[in-house]
Amino acid sequence: MSAADAVPHSSGAQSGWTVLAAHPGAELFGSDRMLRESVAGLREAGARVVVAVPSAGPLIDELIALGAEVVIAPTLVLRKALLRPSGWLRLIRETFRGLGSAWRIARRVRPDVLYVSTITIPLWPVVARLRGIPAVSHVHEAEASASRIVNRLLYLPHLLSDGVLVNSRFSQATIRRALPRLAARSEVVLNGVAGPHRPDLPRTTPEGALRVLYMGRLSPRKGPDLVISAAALLAGEGIAVDVTLVGDVFPGYEWFRDELHAQASATPDQVSVTFAGFQPDVWSYVAATDVVVVPSRIDEPFGNTAVEAVLGLRPVVVADTSGLREAAGSYPTAWLVPVDQPSAISAELKAIAESWADVRAELAGSRAEALRRHAPESYRATVRHHIERAAPSRSEVGAAAVRRGSRR
């Protein structure tokens, strides 16, 4: 559906205020799931929620099920390729196209608040300021290793927002190094991570092949190849390993998927690698595994997957970096390993298998702590509070709508 079309789905009874949420995609990875939780919290409060996304995807059905309305419309999504000289012409073209699209959506929806999900859609805070709409930006990205100038440019448009939420202290510190003024206005809201209601403990003993699970994007920065390499090292010690990779590549990264298949084909006979593809529900895979590995090579703003492993009653091996350390570092059933070292992953997997009974006994306690820290209900309520705080008071909502209508 184009930006010029009417939004297609009715959201039922409303409380008299409207939130327009802008998001850069429609998949079901980390930030997509957080957008879904934010929308759920707003809908629980009776708000009308309209979500603008640039493409179709599985997230849309989830949003519609919550009672949100969805508009598919072009927008500028900042990718690294657009910041290189070879991408500047496309950057300019998508900027003008995205500005027009966002302007028309805002004019049609007439929101009381704009919720900007992620920093990769920089035009929305600009449109909100030009149209006099209060805005809240939610930062789900942080690369401390990136150029300070690049980070500053990414964060700069969000100075125009009335509120700024960040998903970890690491993200906040990364913003502070690039744009202290924005960091000073930001507030940390830990991700709400949903887990299975009644997960089963893993098998009593890891007999036969050790079952290892990777969940997430298949990309070089996420490091799924490190899991295969670690499995091959274990096979060299006579330990059989079954690796399952749940996830898929970004469009344009099919070459990396091919490399992973080639790598898997070259592993010893004691290693089995299953490519499960993208799965909207990962819990059956978690239930079937012994250990989850989160091996990212590059900074991560947070570690939803690590928390999901804990919630699923599974030990997890995590790269000792950035937001992953913050997400998993304090659980007794999470082990941090040096970045980009498959030998460290294999050593930890072997150690976990060898102390299986002790590890298994700690899993329930780790899950209880994760439930306390990352309850989706608490996340929804906190995000909703910040969005409501940015909105005109409930008594002013109707008058504000009239004023905006008169300007149009």
From TrEMBL:
Pfam families linked: Glyco_transf_4 (PF13439), Glycos_transf_1 (PF00534)
UniProt superkingdom: Bacteria
InterPro entries associated with the record: Glyco_trans_1, Glyco_trans_4-like_N, Glycosyltransferase_grp1
Stored Gene3D superfamilies: Glycogen Phosphorylase B
Stretches assigned to the Glycosyl transferase family domain: 206-356
A single GO molecular function term of this UniProt record: transferase activity
Keywords: Glycosyltransferase, Transferase
Residues annotated as domain Glycosyltransferase subfamily 4-like N-terminal: 30-193
PANTHER family, alphabetized: SULFOQUINOVOSYL TRANSFERASE SQD2 (PTHR45947)
Protein's UniProt name: D-inositol 3-phosphate glycosyltransferase
Organism phylogeny: Bacteria, Bacillati, Actinomycetota, Actinomycetes, Micrococcales
